[in-house]
Every structure is written in C-alpha cells, then in structure tokens.
Design goal:
Elements (H helix, E strand, L loop, with lengths): L4 E13 L4 E20 L8 E24 L3 E18 L6 E3 L2 E3 L7 E4 L1 E5 L6 E4 L7 E2 L8 E4 L5 E11 L2 E11 L2 E4 L2 H4 L44 E3 L2 E12 L2 H6 L4 E15 L17 E2 L8 E9 L1
Parallel strand pairs: 14-18
Antiparallel strand pairs: 1-2, 2-3, 3-4, 4-12, 5-6, 6-7, 7-11, 8-9, 9-10, 12-13, 13-16, 14-15, 16-17, 17-19
C-alpha cells in the first residue's frame, strides 16, 4: 500500500462591480487521483471484511460560484446577501483489470460515480396476490417475486451533485436580523431502517404510516406489499428503500438588539448585544427518514440506519464587552 497521488488543475475568476456592491468568484477544478485507496472486500474465510488497497483512479471536477451583494446601504438600514453554489462530478476512471468492486450495496465500476448504489430494482406490487415484485433486468423486461432472481443495477449517487447556501443579513438602527439556508441536490440515500419500519410486520419495530396503504384485497393498486408476518414480502435490499435525499434547511436564524452607546457609556461598557437564535428549525425534503444529512453510519456510503436528526435548538444570548 502506498500514498495516493493527485494532479489538479484550478481556474478562478474574481469580480467586483459598481464599486464592489456586487462581488464574487467563479472557480473550476479538475482533479485526477491515482492509486486511490479503497476498501477492497475479502473472502469470509480471511476473518476480515475488507482491506484498504491502492486499486483505482478517480476523476473529480466541479464548478463553484459565489456572489455577495450590498442591496441597501444607508445610515440606518443595511441589507447584504451572500449566495454560493457548487457542482461536483466524480467518475471512477480505472480499476484493476476493469473488475467491479462491490461492498454491500455500493459498487466501484469504471464509468460510474464512486460508491454508486448497486441494488435490485423494486417493481411494485402484484395486484392479484400482494406479492412484492422486482425487475429481472436480464433483458427480458419481466418481473419476479423472487429477489434472488433479479439482477442488481447501478441506481443512484450517494454524493450530492449540487450544494448551495444563501445568507441574508439586515440591520436597522440597533436591530440586526440574519438567516442562512443550505441545500443539497442530486443525491440518493439508502434508508436501511426502512427495511424494518416499512416491513409488513416482518420485524417488531414501529411501522411507518405507509403500511396503511398496503395491499389487502385482489385488485388493490399500491406500492406497499401485503403484510405477512415473517414472510419476507418486499423486505429484500432493493430500490424500494432508496430515496431522494434532496433538501433545503433553515440552518440558522438570528434576531439581535444592541444597546445604544449613550446608555453603555454611563455604565462603563463598550458593547451589549442581546440575541435570539434558532438552529435547524425547518427542513424541506421528500426523504421520509429522520434526517437527509445523516449518512455513512450504517456500514455503507450514503446509507442511514435510524440516524438521529440534527438537533433543533433555540438559544437566548447576551454579549457584553467592557
């Protein structure tokens, strides 16, 4: 095993307009990494699950853009905005002899993103009998109720293609107000806990609300199979539990008030600011797990398993400077 080696090309352009009331930066990078360290699986007889080896070449490239604007600047009122967005692509360029490296539900394959999801494809429910169905993906276009008969395919990216943020700050006389939004887009998450929470009573975990629309009678059209205790109906690792992980989150919001200097001087203080802040108060997402930001805690890249959500907190503070 040796060190990884990388070659990287970067281009950047900074700009300022209208006496820097609008300023920003555009940057592009292209990075090739050779001898990349990946966890290579080992046979069970070895007594270990995997070993790190220099087995791959990876290319990452992306574009980043940021802009800052001074929207209003007066004696009593100011408003500034900061916006940034970054786009990233990565691709496995080469592997030893071109062979796939499969680890659980992730795969390294030439021409695909690093650690792409590799799963059998869920095809819904047979309306005649409530069986979970899977696409065979053998070229026939058929389906099967036997997950072992279905072939796995590359189906999702565990890394966001776009990451962005927006911050606005407003001050009016002695008041200040700011908020920050952050978001990720183009990412998939494998909800490992879904196999137990949306599992037709196969396990004894609390069940998710989708069980209310499970198949119950011949002719029912639904995407949730019939509940069969210990029947394994639809609980195989599959795209049934692969979900869109896009989100926009209100990272923080703050309202503050700074006491007038005329009051402070009488009490020998330089600055007193009272503020109320909230963190992670709102998240907009279609992901039905606990938190679209929690990943890599379930033994695989981009996978979650009963992951605790980010704490929502509200704090009241006081800053005093003498």
């Amino acid at each position: 095993m040796s060190w990884e080696s990388s070659q990287q090309t970067d281009f950047g352009l900074e700009f300022g307009l209208f006496d820097n009331r609008i300023s920003g930066e555009i940057a592009y990078y292209n990075k090739d990494t050779d001898g990349l360290l990946f966890a290579s699986p080992l046979p069970g007889s070895s007594g270990a699950v995997s070993i790190n080896r220099n087995i791959g070449r990876l290319r990452s490239k992306g574009l980043e853009f940021s802009i800052q604007t001074k929207n209003i600047e007066t004696d009593n009122l100011s408003w500034t905005t900061n916006f940034n967005i970054g786009q990233n692509d990565n691709e496995v360029i080469s592997l030893p002899d071109g062979n796939d490296v499969i680890t659980g539900r992730n795969i390294l394959r030439e021409g695909e993103v690093s650690n792409a999801f590799y799963l059998i494809e869920y095809a819904g429910v047979d309306p005649a009998n409530g069986d979970a169905l899977y696409n065979l993906n053998d070229g026939s276009g058929g389906t099967t109720n036997d997950p072992n008969a279905a072939q796995r395919i590359v189906v999702g990216n565990p890394f966001p293609e776009w990451i962005g943020g927006l911050t606005n700050t407003v001050t009016y006389k002695n008041f200040d107000f700011s908020f920050t939004l952050q978001g990720e887009f183009g990412v998939s998450i494998y909800n490992g806990g879904g196999r137990f929470q949306s599992a037709n009573a196969d396990f004894f975990d609390n069940q998710s609300v989708d069980q209310l629309r499970r198949w119950q009678n011949p002719g029912d059209i639904t995407d949730v199979p019939e509940a069969r205790l210990f029947g394994g109906n639809g609980t195989a690792h599959s795209t049934r539990y692969l979900q869109d992980g896009d989100f926009i989150r209100l990272r923080n919001i703050t309202l503050g008030y700074t006491l007038p200097r005329s009051v402070l001087r009488k009490n020998g203080m330089d600055n007193v600011r009272i503020y109320l802040s909230g963190f992670n108060l709102l998240t907009i997402t279609d992901f039905n797990g606990y938190d679209p930001e929690s990943r890599s805690d379930a033994g695989g890249i981009g996978q979650v398993f009963y992951s605790a959500p980010a704490a929502k907190t509200v704090s009241l503070g006081l800053n005093v400077t003498f």
